[in-house]
Amino acid sequence: MNQLLEEFSKLANITTKLTILQAFLAIFLTFVLTIIITQVYKKTYKGNNYSQSFVHTIIIMGVVVSVIMIVIGNNVAVAFGLVGAFSIIRFRSAMSDPKDIAFIFFGMATGIACGLGFYLLAILFTVSLSILIYILYLFNYARKGEATKRLRITVPENLHYENLFDDLFEKYMESVFLQKVETTNLGTMIQLEYLINNKTGISDKTIIDEIRHRNANLKVSMNYVNYEGR
């Protein structure tokens, strides 16, 4: 009887060691693969609000999810318990770029694959999707015209501005939308505000110079509403 207990004890120790080894391998591999994912994210990010904390979040989420999958294993009761525990978590910060959410899921999917022991699948998934993302970035897939800009034109109060710039807009811009008209400088000037998209190859300076010839050389300003390489 004692010998049988000793054999079970040895088997339990071996199983524990194997579990610890698998857990370490899953965590380490997840960390390496999420590092690759964040490098792709850094390389392909085109927004103006890059966050180091978000990059760290991708790595942390991947590793945490891999550990969760190791803990769950085939235990349905533990799985439901964890679902209930995580349901109380609320994320207070909104994602500025929809692609950020995709990278979060990318890291989590890698962690899930590693946590379940599908190491080769995790590696193939990470490498192949990273290559696909970089190809989309390289060829600027689905790019639509130039960046959206806000054009402000100041004209004298007595100038009839309604159709003054129509031919310039047609010549140099893909789209124009008059967003606001307001008086300025104690009512002696009128400021027009447009949302515009330049035609490909048309510089901002060309547009500004042309407008200044018609607005009595008053102030013309242009600033970018957003720039994501679209």
UniProtKB/TrEMBL annotation:
It holds the Pfam family DUF4956. It comes from the Bacteria. Coiled coil: none annotated. Keywords: Membrane, Transmembrane, Transmembrane helix. The chain crosses the membrane at residues 20-38, 58-89, 101-119, 125-142. This is DUF4956 domain-containing protein. The lineage of its organism: Bacteria, Bacillati, Bacillota, Bacilli, Bacillales.
